[in-house]
Amino acid sequence: MCQQLKALAVGSLSILFSFLIIEIGLQLLDKPKQPVSGWNDCRKPKECNSLGFRGKEIDYSDSDYVVILLGDSQVAAWNVPFEQAPESRLQHFLKKYNKNVKVFTIGTHGYGQDQQLLALKEYFKKYRADLVLLFHSTETDILDNIFPVSGRNNTIKPTFWLENGELRGPTEEWLEPVGQRLKLALLWASYFGRPIGESRLEKWKKDILPPPYQPLRYYQEEADYSWQEKWKESPVDAYRGIEYELGMGEGMKFTPRSEMRTYGINLTRRLLSEIEKLSEANNGHFIIFKDEQPWELQNPNMGKVYFLNGKYYKTSMRQYLDNLKDVFDGFEHYRIPLHMDNYTQSPEDQHLNQPAIYKLMEKLSFIISNKEYFKEK
């Protein structure tokens, strides 16, 4: 019996030693890498600043008026040449009014106000800003704030939430490692475990988020069947995530407004307030702006009902405008109209094209030029 126990102990120690050797080897190789919460995006090193965003290096003098351009993929603008990106265009136009202006970018694809806030906090640890400009992406920002993951791979990100109307979070800090620290545990999880993003998303849907928009089952008047036709062409991708108002630009128009959309608007407002307070605490001014595209200038009484897979989705321009008002009310904000026939990259790519960026930054610079605090610097 003792001999058997001894053999068992020796075998167990051998296995543990083998695991230890493997763990040490994986740690030295740093494989698999521990996931982090959130992301920055540096596709071309020569086009990236020290925070990992597309833009020139953050470098200014004491006499410079420093402007931060905060946003998502619209400020990164990977679809236009580097010298035509929003920060370069804005700096070019602002220099007509003040030659000592420097504009720097914080933001990349998929950023809501949650990651914008945390990245701006990181910026202020080393740098200053006289003005923080937030480029609001109306169709995506609210949903980016609501959900704890992004993209089809459910990439996790630092997320805030509302609890009895109070802001809570974030789930972790920006670019903070998450999950198991042991490489063997990470390896096991990658093959047999459940992705962190998937389980976190389910928790949010179950415990935190109010109900999303509920389409109609019956509708007796005329409906638009274009969504159904598009779905027939691509049943896997078209309107994926529509049950949570995701994957299409019409979500802000759904009427009546869902409890989840109301929650998202309130959450967004709280995050905007935090960005405003952070800017002012660091002696900066805060402005929100957005491009106002031609379709946003339509008759507010316009609306449509879309049919998709046996359900009817009612949309309203009035609801869209009310949602915008509720997001921006009380903040200094500017909705800058783009009176252009062609302003996006393509029908499939809704990012602003080069002429639209030029016009938007030119108009924004004129607004800023009339601010007393800009003239005084």
Short description:
With 377 residues, the chain is of the alpha/beta class.
Key descriptive features of the protein:
globular; 12 helices; Rossmann fold; 15% strand; 5-stranded parallel sheet; alpha/beta; 40% helix; two-stranded antiparallel sheet; 377 residues
Folded structure, characterized:
It is a single chain. The protein has 12 helices and 13 strands. It is globular. The chain has a single domain, classed as SGNH hydrolase (Rossmann fold), CATH 3.40.50.1110. 40% of the residues lie in helices and 15% in strands. The model has no long low-confidence stretch (mean pLDDT 89). By secondary structure, it is of the alpha/beta class. Helix 3 runs parallel beside helix 11, helix 5 crosses helix 9 and helix 9 packs parallel to helix 10.
Element layout with pairings:
Elements: H1 2-29, E1 36-37, E2 65-71, H2 73-76, H3 86-94, E3 101-107, H4 113-124, E4 131-135, H5 138-146, E5 149-150, E6 155-156, E7 161-163, E8 166-168, E9 176-177, H6 183-192, H7 196-208, H8 226-233, H9 259-281, E10 285-292, E11 303-308, E12 311-316, H10 317-328, E13 333-337, H11 354-369, H12 372-376
Parallel strand pairs: 2-3, 2-4, 4-10, 10-13
Antiparallel strand pairs: 1-9, 5-6, 7-8, 11-12
Helix pairs in contact: 3-11, 4-9, 5-9, 9-10
Number of H/I helices: 12
Provide the helix percentage.
25-40%
Helix and strand sequence: HEEHHEHEHEEEEEHHHHEEEHEHH
Structural class: alpha/beta
Gap between N and C termini, in Å? Answer: 87 Å
CATH class: Alpha Beta
